[in-house]
Design goal:
This protein is α+β, with helices and mostly antiparallel strands. It has 14 helices and 31 strands. The strands form eight sheets. The chain has a seven-stranded mixed sheet, sandwiched between helices. It has a six-stranded antiparallel sheet with strand order 18-17-23-14-15-22, with helices on one face. Helix 4 packs parallel to helix 5 (118-129), helix 7 (209-215) packs across helix 8 (217-233) and helix 11 (405-417) packs across helix 12 (441-454). The longest helix has 17 residues, at 217-233. The structure holds guanosine-5',3'-tetraphosphate.
Length: 527
Amino acid sequence: MTIQDEIHKRRTFGIISHPDAGKTTLTEKLLLFGGAIQTAGAVKSNKIKKGATSDFMEIERQRGISVATSVMTFEYNNLKINILDTPGHKDFAEDTYRTLTAVDSVILVIDCVKGVEEQTERLMEVCRMRNTPVIIFINKMDREGQNPFDLLDELEQKLNIKVRPLTWPINIGANFKGVYNLFEKSLNLFSANKTKIEKEVVAVDIWSEELDKKVGEKDANQLREDVELIEGVYGNFERDTYLSGEIAPVFFGSAVNNFGVQELLDTFTEIAPSTQARQTDVRVVEPEEKKFSGFIFKIHANLDPKHRDRIAFLRICSGTFERNKFYKHVRLDKNLRFNNPYTFMAQDKEVIEEGFPGDVVGLYDTGNFKIGDTMTEGENLQYQGIPSFSPEIFKELMNLDPMKSKQLEKGIMQLTDEGVAQLFLQPQLGNRKIVGTVGELQYEVIQYRLEHEYGAKCRFDHRDIAKACWITAEDPKKLAEFVRLKGQNIAQDKDENYVFLAESDWILRMNIQNNPDIQFHFTSEFK
Ligand code: G4P
């Protein structure tokens, strides 16, 4: 098989949703329908169980599981499907943002009762930044949800994307009868807990009496009316508009009942993009290029505290990745090779000899990698699209055991390399360490891991900071002057970029207004 064939075979995507909308269920059902697992329930849920005694102990338990589910690969219709897992808990949203930089498309799950929820909006913002193609699956149609037209309006308004239904539900909740496929003009009638995977789809002319027989006169008439309206309101579906991220096709179903999953999988494999070209700081890299390149989008610490080795997840972007071959770690300007790169087939992982663009490879790491690092076959380029966003909570790291300050230092550096939180240093203020996160849970995780993995004890003290903005200026003197004047509010991120820490949005706005020579950036990617 040529590298072109390998590239065209691959579909690398992520499933995203607000917690509880059904991401885990849908992932499992896709594996089931794709033939990767034989029974539902085989994939362990990596979500934080509701009512767990302690969320962060649960996270420790989950860390083991989520290594195994980081990438789920299976073959379907001669395609190689790579599902990249994203954490469901909102405190780990940053992990999800980073994983989204490594996919070529996304399936977004919406709960038909709850509609568009807050986390969905943020996740879609990240997709829109990169024009990632999105397919929407409206789940839980067996529940009394909102009117489907209202849901579509809400999707368009809140997610700022045009939608195009490809299936249409017949009634909802207790009276849900199934979906009509608007393109194949076929009917898929609902029965709860469909365990069989064979298609129960029948072609039907909705204008004939056959429809009335199948779904009853009232629902048949409603469907006819809806279909006319859809055809009037939404134009033809063009694949290009989906690929460019302008229009999101929409499916309706019920993942837990295995309903609508087959249509979704079949359409996904038909229209979703294969491995895409990617932007670097110097040029666009095409997957077909001969030379290997890729980037690290996720780092996972092993559970065993005695061995501090980690697994770095590399997304291959171009060329062929080979086991035991030396590649250049661009940031460190160092050549590295890997004896045991591994890949994942359903739940098993196996050592691979080679990998192709679109694949994700797990690499054992002893501390060489940070999130965003690029590996190449010699070229100096850096993949883009892994920005940091301003954290939402800021606390100062306080050392509780002066004898262990070295361990604390090392631990917090390594944990923040993994992307658990962002670290801002204030060397001018006695080397203060401000740790920024998107959720309280991370502080517990850091505290726990510092103690158990590094033997260091710490406490976190609240700091009155509302936003972190990266700052630059064309004239280095102006920047130095601003940094000197605003001493208390200035910190540096781990790459030594200057960051302005604002106590409130109002203070930030005033500073932006009063300092026209300084550029304030809301993400770390401004170069
Ligand atoms: P998440 O990963 O997005 O957080 O959601 P997950 O799949 O875990 O689903 C959240 C809950 O919604 C689960 O129930 C799941 O069974 C249920 N669910 C998923 N799809 C459907 C559907 O199509 N219809 C209905 N009615 N429910 C659905 P749970 O009670 O939290 O967990 P469980 O005890 O059922 O596992």
